[in-house]
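User: Can you predict the 3D structure for this chain?
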Amino acid sequence: MSVFTGEDTPLVRLCFSEDAAWLRLLGEIERENDDGFRAWVQVVERPDLGGNSVEDWAQLAQECGFRLVIFADERAQVGDGTLLCVNPKSPSQSFRCPPDHLWSPENNLSLANMDFEEFVTASDAGGIYRGFD
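Assistant: Here is the predicted structure, written as C-alpha coordinates:
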Protein backbone atom coordinates (compact mmCIF):
# COMPACT_ATOMS: atom_id res chain seq x y z
CA MET A 1 0.00 0.00 0.00
CA SER A 2 1.31 3.42 -0.94
CA VAL A 3 1.75 6.26 1.54
CA PHE A 4 0.19 8.50 -1.13
CA THR A 5 -3.59 8.36 -1.11
CA GLY A 6 -4.59 10.65 -3.95
CA GLU A 7 -3.65 12.18 -7.24
CA ASP A 8 -2.65 15.60 -5.90
CA THR A 9 1.05 16.38 -5.55
CA PRO A 10 2.55 14.97 -2.35
CA LEU A 11 3.46 17.48 0.35
CA VAL A 12 5.57 15.55 2.84
CA ARG A 13 5.95 16.95 6.34
CA LEU A 14 9.49 16.24 7.55
CA CYS A 15 9.64 18.44 10.66
CA PHE A 16 7.34 17.49 13.52
CA SER A 17 8.66 19.80 16.23
CA GLU A 18 6.63 22.93 15.46
CA ASP A 19 2.90 22.25 15.08
CA ALA A 20 1.89 25.93 15.07
CA ALA A 21 4.44 26.74 12.35
CA TRP A 22 3.25 23.73 10.35
CA LEU A 23 -0.40 24.82 10.50
CA ARG A 24 0.53 28.38 9.51
CA LEU A 25 2.57 27.08 6.55
CA LEU A 26 -0.21 24.73 5.48
CA GLY A 27 -2.69 27.61 5.52
CA GLU A 28 -0.40 29.64 3.25
CA ILE A 29 0.02 26.72 0.84
CA GLU A 30 -3.73 26.12 0.54
CA ARG A 31 -4.64 29.81 0.09
CA GLU A 32 -5.67 30.92 -3.40
CA ASN A 33 -3.76 33.83 -4.91
CA ASP A 34 -5.47 36.93 -6.35
CA ASP A 35 -5.97 35.14 -9.67
CA GLY A 36 -7.62 32.12 -8.04
CA PHE A 37 -4.65 29.74 -8.36
CA ARG A 38 -3.45 27.47 -5.59
CA ALA A 39 -1.28 24.40 -5.17
CA TRP A 40 -3.21 21.13 -5.09
CA VAL A 41 -1.43 18.93 -2.59
CA GLN A 42 -2.04 15.78 -0.61
CA VAL A 43 -0.55 16.18 2.84
CA VAL A 44 1.58 13.27 4.00
CA GLU A 45 2.22 13.31 7.75
CA ARG A 46 4.01 10.10 8.66
CA PRO A 47 6.32 10.58 11.64
CA ASP A 48 6.65 6.78 11.72
CA LEU A 49 8.57 7.09 8.44
CA GLY A 50 10.89 9.78 9.80
CA GLY A 51 13.90 7.71 8.83
CA ASN A 52 13.05 8.11 5.16
CA SER A 53 15.40 10.43 3.31
CA VAL A 54 14.31 12.91 0.64
CA GLU A 55 15.64 10.40 -1.90
CA ASP A 56 13.48 7.62 -0.38
CA TRP A 57 10.39 9.82 -0.61
CA ALA A 58 11.28 10.85 -4.16
CA GLN A 59 11.58 7.19 -5.17
CA LEU A 60 8.12 6.47 -3.73
CA ALA A 61 6.70 9.47 -5.59
CA GLN A 62 8.32 8.37 -8.86
CA GLU A 63 6.89 4.87 -8.49
CA CYS A 64 3.44 6.47 -8.23
CA GLY A 65 4.01 8.64 -11.31
CA PHE A 66 4.31 12.04 -9.64
CA ARG A 67 6.31 14.74 -11.43
CA LEU A 68 6.99 16.71 -8.23
CA VAL A 69 7.24 16.02 -4.54
CA ILE A 70 7.24 18.89 -2.04
CA PHE A 71 8.86 18.79 1.39
CA ALA A 72 7.98 20.85 4.46
CA ASP A 73 11.28 20.55 6.27
CA GLU A 74 12.63 22.54 9.20
CA ARG A 75 13.68 25.39 6.91
CA ALA A 76 10.13 25.62 5.56
CA GLN A 77 8.55 25.65 8.99
CA VAL A 78 10.92 27.67 11.16
CA GLY A 79 13.48 29.08 8.71
CA ASP A 80 12.83 31.21 5.66
CA GLY A 81 9.49 29.52 4.91
CA THR A 82 10.54 28.05 1.56
CA LEU A 83 9.48 24.54 0.67
CA LEU A 84 11.82 22.02 -0.95
CA CYS A 85 10.58 20.95 -4.40
CA VAL A 86 12.24 17.79 -5.73
CA ASN A 87 12.14 16.04 -9.09
CA PRO A 88 11.17 12.42 -8.35
CA LYS A 89 12.98 11.21 -11.47
CA SER A 90 16.19 12.95 -10.42
CA PRO A 91 16.16 13.74 -6.67
CA SER A 92 19.37 15.76 -6.92
CA GLN A 93 17.41 18.26 -9.04
CA SER A 94 15.55 20.62 -6.73
CA PHE A 95 14.65 24.19 -5.89
CA ARG A 96 12.98 25.95 -3.00
CA CYS A 97 9.73 27.88 -3.27
CA PRO A 98 7.77 30.19 -0.96
CA PRO A 99 4.16 29.08 -0.35
CA ASP A 100 2.65 31.98 -2.30
CA HIS A 101 4.44 30.85 -5.48
CA LEU A 102 4.00 27.09 -5.00
CA TRP A 103 0.90 27.02 -7.22
CA SER A 104 3.02 27.65 -10.34
CA PRO A 105 5.36 24.63 -10.22
CA GLU A 106 2.66 22.40 -8.72
CA ASN A 107 0.05 23.24 -11.37
CA ASN A 108 2.42 23.23 -14.32
CA LEU A 109 4.45 20.16 -13.41
CA SER A 110 1.48 18.03 -12.39
CA LEU A 111 -0.15 18.75 -15.77
CA ALA A 112 3.15 18.35 -17.67
CA ASN A 113 2.79 21.89 -19.04
CA MET A 114 6.41 22.64 -18.17
CA ASP A 115 9.60 20.77 -17.33
CA PHE A 116 11.24 20.70 -13.92
CA GLU A 117 14.37 22.28 -15.40
CA GLU A 118 12.42 25.44 -16.29
CA PHE A 119 11.75 26.10 -12.60
CA VAL A 120 15.34 25.32 -11.62
CA THR A 121 16.57 27.76 -14.27
CA ALA A 122 14.10 30.45 -13.12
CA SER A 123 15.31 30.16 -9.52
CA ASP A 124 17.56 32.85 -8.05
CA ALA A 125 21.20 32.41 -7.04
CA GLY A 126 20.03 30.91 -3.72
CA GLY A 127 17.99 28.25 -5.53
CA ILE A 128 14.62 29.84 -4.70
CA TYR A 129 11.89 30.08 -7.34
CA ARG A 130 9.87 33.29 -6.93
CA GLY A 131 8.08 33.35 -10.27
CA PHE A 132 8.94 34.05 -13.86
CA ASP A 133 10.00 37.54 -14.83
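The chain has a mean pLDDT of 94. The first helix runs from residue 19 to 30.
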